[in-house]
Design a protein that fits this description.
530 residues; globular; mainly alpha; 5% strand
Length: 530
């Protein structure tokens, strides 16, 4: 009966959040607090599922992460500068409040203030990945930068935990470097397992055994192991398929993560108003993210969306606080206060991030003045010259369309994609492809289309991106015909209603195309030889 109530409350809360056009995670957070008030407590099952969710999340992030991202100035520079600046911000603020003798902050020791400040510097990897996946913007420039910053923060947290808990890596930790030459073996294994249930089981083995368990056995954080193993496999063609196979399990386990935040929090008026005070400081914390990203020559919109993805407190902050409580640096009540601050930051950040484009349009003139004159290489304006055909999204479908249209419009076809590695491959294959993010409103504002533009193909893998690009094309009154791809019938109907001249349903058309091809081949093979 208890499990039935837990599942019912969780579903209803998530569904109500969905009806209110909010991410379901907001409902799951609320469900945790509601269940706590109903007498439920954190138990081993929920705690284990939450840990599994975070570990799976980091593994799937690793599968999509180019390790070179971490060495880019806008990533390590922002992460490092932001950590230092915010340490000073929180130490100064908490010290001032202590001097005034307000609430339990006035009872903090100097060590407690420093550790608490460190915990508040982090932003949530779980939250950022969730909202970026929901908007299909993990591969957008701001999404890649935000994830890189979060991973750098996770590394800072691992160093802190190792230093404070006294759990130093064992003498066998350097042997983990052998994973690098072991990488080809993993690649061959991925090739052999195919795409069915065996691939799914392999994903769990790589996450929890080769990653988490192996790293934990040598004194390193298990989540870090899952991330590293995922990164080792990121270049394999089957990596994205494995991430999709694990997606449902990851989502289910993360429900437990959000529930556990509420279930572990003992509410009191003091913890609530201190949490609200800490959430107020998030405005300054987010402003520092924005300023640093602008300093690294990102466009104002890219910097703003990146800052909004990071405008929250983190589950790692709870871990740091728990260690501080165990060591006697903080009172146990601070766990509830931090959990409340994390929860409220999620509640506020989710609708803000969802409507970030609308908010940006209001403050765009002011942010534009802060933008550097020389922009980041990946954030440059888009020039199309005299091109007559534009293909947005250069995956397999976009690539095939490019080759076909090149026969009819020689040297007048251009492809646009966000993935620099994919672009390099296309250029080496002789195709004209440039970098650009068609889900970026500034992309459309800076796009200089050819006056002879005749056709635009929307071949991006996600419906959200194609729908957004179609709206921008119609808003900008481009004089070209527009064709788009869709995976589902309802998505195809939406694109047609928005004004697409032609929509190619991948499943329906692929079946018809297959039948036509087979029919033509059979007829050809049955013709008598002349």
């Amino acid at each position: 009966m208890d499990i039935s109530i837990l599942i019912t409350v969780t579903f209803l809360a998530g569904f109500l959040a969905h009806l209110a056009h909010l991410p379901p995670l907001i409902g799951f957070l609320a469900a945790g607090f509601a269940l706590r008030e109903m007498g439920f407590e954190q138990n081993e099952l929920i705690s284990t599922a939450a840990d599994l969710g975070v570990t799976l999340l980091l593994f799937t992030v690793g599968l999509k992460l180019d390790v070179r991202t971490l060495f880019k100035r806008e990533v390590w520079g922002t992460a490092t500068a932001h950590m230092g600046t915010n340490m000073l911000l929180f130490i100064g603020t908490l010290s001032a409040v202590k001097w005034l003798g307000i609430s339990s902050i006035g009872e903090l020791s100097t060590t407690g203030i420093v550790v608490l400040s460190f915990a508040l510097c982090f932003s949530s990897t779980v939250f950022a990945v969730k909202v970026l996946e929901d908007k299909s913007e993990m591969n957008a420039l701001y999404g890649r930068v935000a994830i890189g910053v979060l991973i750098m923060q996770d590394i800072f947290a691992v160093v802190f935990l190792a230093a404070t808990t006294g759990k130093l890596p064992t003498m066998y930790a350097p042997l983990l470097l052998l994973l690098l030459p072991f990488r080809p073996v993993l690649y061959r294994l991925l090739n052999r397992v195919g795409h069915g249930e065996l691939q799914l089981v392999l994903g769990f083995f790589l996450t929890f055994v080769l990653g988490a368990q192996l790293f934990d056995s040598v004194g390193l954080k298990s989540d870090l192991g899952a991330l590293v193993v995922g990164m080792l496999l990121a270049g394999h063609p089957a990596a994205s398929g494995m991430a999709k196979a694990l997606f449902s399990f990851k989502e289910l386990f993360l429900v437990a993560f959000f529930l556990s935040i509420g279930l572990s929090s003992e509410l009191s008026f003091e913890s609530i108003y201190i949490a609200l005070f800490l959430v107020g400081i998030l405005v300054i914390k987010s402003a520092f993210y924005l300023l640093y990203l602008l300093q690294f020559r990102l466009r104002s919109r890219t910097a703003f969306l990146g800052a909004m993805s990071l405008a929250n407190y983190s589950e790692f902050g709870l871990i740091v606080t728990a260690v501080a409580v165990q060591l006697g640096w903080l009172d146990a009540d601070w766990m509830a206060t931090l959990a409340m601050a994390v929860s409220i930051s999620f509640l506020l950040a989710a609708p803000i991030h969802k409507n970030a484009d609308i908010i940006y349009q209001f403050i765009r003139p002011s942010l534009k003045r802060l933008q550097r004159s020389k922009l980041h290489l990946e954030d440059q304006p888009i020039e199309l010259g005299q091109m007559q055909v534009v293909i947005l999204g250069m995956g397999r479908i976009g690539e095939g369309a490019y080759d076909m249209l090149q026969q009819h419009y020689p040297d007048l076809v251009i492809g646009i994609d966000t993935d620099l590695e994919k672009i390099q491959h296309q250029i080496e294959s002789g195709r004209a492809v440039i970098q650009g993010d068609a889900t970026d409103s500034d992309f459309w504002e800076k796009l200089a289309p050819s006056k002879d533009l005749k056709l635009v193909l929307l071949a991006m893998p996600h419906h959200h991106g194609n729908q957004y690009a179609l709206k921008q094309l119609k808003k900008g009154e481009f004089g070209a015909k527009i064709a788009a791809i869709a995976q589902f019938a309802d998505d195809a109907e939406k694109l047609k209603r928005l004004g697409a001249d032609e929509v190619f349903n991948l499943y329906n058309e692929a079946g018809a195309g297959f039948a036509d091809h087979v029919h033509a081949q059979l007829i050809a093979s049955n013709k008598p030889h002349e």
